[in-house]
């Protein structure tokens, strides 16, 4: 992200050879020593020859078994290889979409791809934001190029293709290619390419354009832009043509030579992707796609470049402000929770008090009833006692009378008896 | 590592990088520090074969300053299709005062402020292409006393060596004989090591030829330089040099001084490395110190802080948030537990109370019933007694009646008088 346009500088002539024209070489030597890295994502339905094409492009057999069509969802499998050509070391990562296009409902197919791309951006962002960071030795896993494999139907793009590419075009450099193009005749191919291009344009899909700002490569890039999407054929099998062994696919009716530009656009793809624009693809990924992701992510988290008064924030102020806001938020949440709890306690207490009151009332009532019963009992007792007393009195009176009578009678009898005896 | 059979094409990557870098252009900021009169401006002009300081843009020696200033001049130079934006940073007044305490402070401030600018630009949400104005190299001019480093030299280098690439130079080396120069260099290097000053060590660039050269060069440190803007003819050759009655000291003659070595190292082989070290080491140190102060509460060295250092502040905040959520959950569960327990207690109490009251009520009821029964029993007993007694009374009455009837009968019979 460094620019050197000599702003504010005055041009001065040199009286001789100083030697800073070696700067590009110094830079190049350092990069070569450090090694390069490149990450390709291959998106396309199962069976479109993604793995074969990678093998053909990089002249090597990458690992992997051909996948079946019964994958439950879209998964991304990535493999990293260390390659060397001349004195240049390349750490190449090839990511394949496994199971893409195999499901009945493909609405969510693009999601795992977008998620994967975002995850790589996120990892880089986290590293970039660390306090102690090591960007210099960071293994960059961000996707630099996405080869989108279009099925060679000869008609038009599938809706899955349009949907997916639309979701990816702001996140990655898309290079659409027509896979297994040996199934299409030349005339059909021209029509097919035109149809695809117009569909992409009408749907607003931004595919990667080979850069034309550098005069050294402007012409070739501009021509190649016109050949998109590249119609490719991949093969690791070799066939003898003339006195050479060439990569080809042998049919009864002829042999399709992979590296024959009349047969397919393989060579064009290799030129553009690897030999001419690999560095630009890396640069675009970093300065455009990654910056967009970063900006969105930071804005999402509430970071701004200027404070409400439109004064620029310094980094510290931004972090501090963000952090204070964040801590304040947490405090508030904590306080809210406490308050809610206090409220609950109060309510429950009131509830229980209510229950207690009811209980007491119940027992007061019962007590009252009991008192009444007791009183009734007392009354009954009293009346019985009265009756008993009355009876007792009666009895006593009667007995008294009887005894008196007896005494009198007895004495009469005694008198009588006494008289008799006289 | 797989070596490829057949042509792929990424061996062309270096060319792509070359192409792009030329298109972008290069920039370099060089700082020169030293007392007045040590030939700093002349050396710069000699290094870059240009009149950076001319009549229209006078150099610092022609400006008399009372306090140390830091001034920058920016020029654009082109060579072999390569464009370089060169910024020369001057420090007029350095070491010229009677009391030079803290004369390094403006220098430190300048270096830090450039790092600060870069940090802020790098930290913006909307980042645009940022110019790199950080100081990539600081040439420190040592006066050719022949003895050793002055206290100011030592103090300056000690304070700056962890902020910028410091390359110490012996200025006006044409006042020293080769022997004096050798001794002087040895003495200086000894003192530098004693004070643990880390000057820029021209590292080995991976190329066997050059590394031998580089090792030889390291033995010549610190480099003793002579500068000149004047071209003199010597034996038919046109050379830059200083004309004396006794001869010409040639700037680019390796036996006369180390100018060529300096130029080659500084510009032709290690310019990129100076920038890389500035970016990967000095700037990163500045940045992590600055950020640690903000996010780690003054950088108190605990194990927590160490953890924080290896995380981005965003991840840090995320971590804190997660911790807080966990803490709140724990608090919530605890409070919930206490709450439940208290409620259970209270409910149990109520239940016990209710049971007790019920029990008492039952008992009272039973009591009453017992009393009722007793009463009934008493009543029944009484009834029975009463009825018995009444029956008895009736019998007695009957007897009495019978008796009185008999008496009456007897009376009537006259048997009774």
From TrEMBL, chain A:
Keywords: Coiled coil, GTP-binding, Nucleotide-binding. CDD domains: CDC_Septin. The keyword Transmembrane helix does not apply. Pfam families: Septin. Residues 34-300 form the Septin-type G domain. Belongs to the TRAFAC class TrmE-Era-EngA-EngB-Septin-like GTPase superfamily. Septin GTPase family. This is Septin. The gene is LOC112256381.
From TrEMBL, chain B:
Keywords: Cell cycle, Cell division, Cell projection, Centromere, Chromosome, Cilium, Coiled coil, Cytoplasm, Cytoskeleton, GTP-binding, Kinetochore, Mitosis, Nucleotide-binding. One of its GO terms (biological process) is cell division. It is found in: Chromosome, Centromere, Kinetochore; Cleavage furrow; Cytoplasm, Cytoskeleton, Cilium axoneme; Cytoplasm, Cytoskeleton, Spindle. One of its GO terms (molecular function) is GTP binding. It comes from the Eukaryota. Residues 24-293 form the Septin-type G domain. Residues 373-417 are annotated as: Disordered. Its main location: nucleus. Residues 373-388, 397-409 have a biased composition (Basic and acidic residues). GO terms for cellular component: axoneme; cleavage furrow; kinetochore; midbody; septin complex; spindle. PANTHER family: SEPTIN. Belongs to the TRAFAC class TrmE-Era-EngA-EngB-Septin-like GTPase superfamily. Septin GTPase family. This is Septin. The lineage of its organism: Eukaryota, Metazoa, Chordata, Craniata, Vertebrata.
């Amino acid at each position: 992200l460094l620019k050197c346009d000599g702003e504010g500088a005055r041009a001065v002539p040199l009286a001789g050879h100083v030697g800073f024209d070696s700067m590009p070489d110094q830079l190049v030597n350092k990069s070569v020593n450090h090694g390069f890295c490149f990450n390709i994502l291959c998106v396309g339905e199962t069976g479109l020859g993604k793995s074969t094409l990678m093998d053909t492009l990089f002249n090597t057999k990458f690992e992997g078994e051909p996948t079946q069509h019964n994958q439950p969802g879209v998964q991304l499998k990535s493999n990293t290889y260390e390659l060397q050509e001349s004195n240049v070391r390349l750490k190449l990562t090839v990511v394949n979409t496994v199971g893409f296009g195999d499901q009945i409902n493909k609405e969510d197919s693009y999601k795992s791809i977008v998620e994967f791309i975002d995850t790589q951006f996120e990892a880089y962002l986290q590293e970039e934001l660390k306090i102690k960071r090591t960007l210099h030795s960071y293994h960059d896993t961000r996707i630099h190029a996405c080869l989108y494999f279009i099925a060679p139907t000869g008609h038009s793009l599938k809706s899955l293709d349009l949907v997916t590419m639309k979701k990816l075009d702001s996140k990655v450099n898309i290079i659409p290619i027509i896979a297994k193009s040996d199934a299409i005749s030349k005339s059909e191919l021209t029509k097919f390419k035109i149809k695809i291009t117009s569909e992409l344009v009408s749907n607003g899909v931004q595919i990667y354009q080979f850069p034309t700002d550098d005069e050294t490569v402007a012409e070739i890039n501009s021509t190649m832009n016109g050949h998109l999407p590249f119609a490719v054929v991949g093969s690791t099998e070799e066939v003898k043509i003339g006195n050479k062994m060439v990569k080809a696919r042998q049919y009864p009716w002829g042999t399709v030579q992979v590296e024959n530009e009349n047969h397919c656009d393989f060579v064009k793809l290799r030129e553009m992707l690897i030999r001419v624009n690999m560095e630009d693809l890396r640069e675009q990924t970093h300065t455009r796609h990654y910056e967009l992701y970063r900006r969105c992510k930071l804005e999402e988290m509430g970071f701004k470049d200027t404070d409400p008064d439109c004064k620029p924030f310094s980094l510290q102020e931004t972090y501090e402000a963000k952090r204070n806001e964040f801590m304040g938020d947490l405090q508030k949440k904590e306080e809210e929770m406490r308050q809610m709890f206090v409220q609950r306690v109060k309510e429950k207490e009131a509830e229980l008090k209510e229950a207690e009151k009811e209980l007491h009332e119940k027992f007061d009532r019962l007590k009252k009833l009991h008192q009444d019963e007791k009183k009734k009992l007392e009354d009954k007792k009293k009346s019985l006692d009265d009756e008993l007393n009355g009876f007792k009195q009666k009895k006593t009176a009667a007995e008294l009378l009887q005894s008196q009578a007896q005494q009198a009678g007895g004495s009469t009898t005694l008198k009588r008896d006494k008289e008799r005896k006289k | 590592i797989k070596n490829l059979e057949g042509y792929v094409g990424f061996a062309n990557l270096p060319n792509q990088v070359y192409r792009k870098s030329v298109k972008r252009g290069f920039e370099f900021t060089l700082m020169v520090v030293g007392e007045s009169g040590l030939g700093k401006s002349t050396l710069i002009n000699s290094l870059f074969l240009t009149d950076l300081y001319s009549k229209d843009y006078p150099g610092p020696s022609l400006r008399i300053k009372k306090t140390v200033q830091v001034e920058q001049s920016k020029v654009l130079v082109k060579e072999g299709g390569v464009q370089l934006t060169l910024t020369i940073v001057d420090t007029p007044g350095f070491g010229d005062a009677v009391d030079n305490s803290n004369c390094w402070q403006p220098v430190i401030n300048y270096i830090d402020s450039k790092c600060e600018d870069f940090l802020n630009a790098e930290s913006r949400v909307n980042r645009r292409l940022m110019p790199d104005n950080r100081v990539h190299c600081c040439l420190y001019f040592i006066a050719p006393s022949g003895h050793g480093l002055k206290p100011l030299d030592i103090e300056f280098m000690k304070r700056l060596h962890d902020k910028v690439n410091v390359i110490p130079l012996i200025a006006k080396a044409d006042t020293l004989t080769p022997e004096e120069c050798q001794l002087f260099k040895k003495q200086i290097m000894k003192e530098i090591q004693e004070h643990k000053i880390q000057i820029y060590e021209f590292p080995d660039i991976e190329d066997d030829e050059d590394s031998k050269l580089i090792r030889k060069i390291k033995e010549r440190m610190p480099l003793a330089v002579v500068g000149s803007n004047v071209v003199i003819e010597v034996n038919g050759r046109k050379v830059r040099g200083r004309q004396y009655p006794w001869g010409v000291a040639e700037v680019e003659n390796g036996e006369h001084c180390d100018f060529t070595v300096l130029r080659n190292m500084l510009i032709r082989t290690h310019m990129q490395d100076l920038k890389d070290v500035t970016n990967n080491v000095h700037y990163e140190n500045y940045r992590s110190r600055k950020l640690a102060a903000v996010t780690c509460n003054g950088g108190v060295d605990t194990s927590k802080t160490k953890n924080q250092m290896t995380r981005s502040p965003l991840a840090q905040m995320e971590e804190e948030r997660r911790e807080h959520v966990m803490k709140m959950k724990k608090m919530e569960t605890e409070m919930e537990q206490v709450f439940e327990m208290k409620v259970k207690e209270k409910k149990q109490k109520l239940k016990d109370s209710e049971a007790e009251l019920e029990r008492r009520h039952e008992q009272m009821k039973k009591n009453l019933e017992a009393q009722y029964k007793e009463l009934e029993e008493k009543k029944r007993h009484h009834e029975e007694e009463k009825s018995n007694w009444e029956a008895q009374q009736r019998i007695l009455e009957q007897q009495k009646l019978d008796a009185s009837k008999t008496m009456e009968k007897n009376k009537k019979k006259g048997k009774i008088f």
